[in-house]
């Protein structure tokens, strides 16, 4: 969804305030009689995602891929991480081990000297909810979403992100 920050004095009710924006795609922002703006979005993927990440070297420029975690919990649903191709609205999916596991924010680490924006790995913490299950972190190929490695976190719980998480070193 794109929300316009400025409304031209020339705009009239019924005008699409995004009509001159080449990047808007199917998004609309229609000015209403009462001065409010009705925004509609453009669906890029059939799977909802949270914690969107992309190649930050392309910040404020066109980028092709976005990665996110699937947090919708359904009994038999194992969607974990989704990679959306914004050029053709296709997606790839990595599935977690169990439906009640939750994937945290996928962190993209590009290969040094990369030439394609999806060249590198994703680091994804996975939180477990069931007593006895241990949290883990997976390393995924950013291009294919194939699992490259994983390690178990030797604690019963970890937060959804890596931000400011400190633990005591165990010998």
Structure description:
This protein is mainly β. It has two domains: 9-42, no CATH class; 50-152. It has strands at residues 28-31, 37-40, 50-53, 65-69, 79-85, 90-95, 102-103, 107-110, 120-127, 136-141, 147-152. Strands 7, 8, 9, 10 and 11 form a five-stranded antiparallel beta sheet that branches. A four-stranded antiparallel beta sheet has the order 3-4-5-6, with no helix packed on it. The chain has a two-stranded antiparallel sheet with strand order 1-2. It is elongated and about 70 Å long. It starts with 27 loop residues before the first strand and ends in a 19-residue tail after the last strand. InterPro entries: Carotenoid_Oase. GO terms for molecular function: beta-carotene 15,15'-dioxygenase activity; carotenoid dioxygenase activity; metal ion binding. This is Retinoid isomerohydrolase.
Residue windows where pLDDT falls under 50 for at least 5 positions: none
> What's the domain count?
2
Count all strands and give the number: 11
Distance between the termini: 49 Å
The sequence of SSEs as H and E is EEEEEEEEEEE
Shape type:
elongated
Largest sheet features: 5 strands, antiparallel
Radius of gyration: 20 Å
What proportion of the residues form beta strands (DSSP E)?
Answer: 25-35%
- Supply the number of helical segments: 0
The helical percent reads: under 10%
Structure class: mainly beta
Overall pLDDT score? 88
């Amino acid at each position: 969804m794109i929300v316009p920050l400025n409304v031209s004095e020339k705009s009239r009710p019924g005008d699409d305030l995004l009509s001159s924006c080449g990047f808007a795609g199917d998004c609309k922002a229609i000015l209403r009689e009462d001065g409010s703006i009705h925004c509609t979005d453009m669906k890029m993927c059939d799977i909802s995602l949270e914690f969107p990440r992309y190649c930050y070297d392309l910040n404020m420029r066109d980028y092709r891929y976005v990665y996110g975690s699937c947090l919708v919990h359904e009994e038999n649903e194992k969607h974990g991480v989704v990679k959306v191709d914004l050029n053709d609205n296709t997606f790839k999916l990595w599935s977690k081990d169990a439906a009640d596991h939750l994937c945290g924010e996928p962190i993209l680490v590009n290969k040094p000297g990369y030439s394609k924006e999806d060249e590198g790995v994703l680091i994804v913490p996975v939180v477990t909810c069931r007593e006895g299950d241990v949290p883990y972190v997976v390393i995924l190929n950013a291009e294919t979403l194939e699992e490259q490695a994983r390690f178990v976190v030797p604690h019963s719980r970890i937060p959804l992100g890596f931000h400011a998480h400190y633990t005591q070193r165990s010998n």
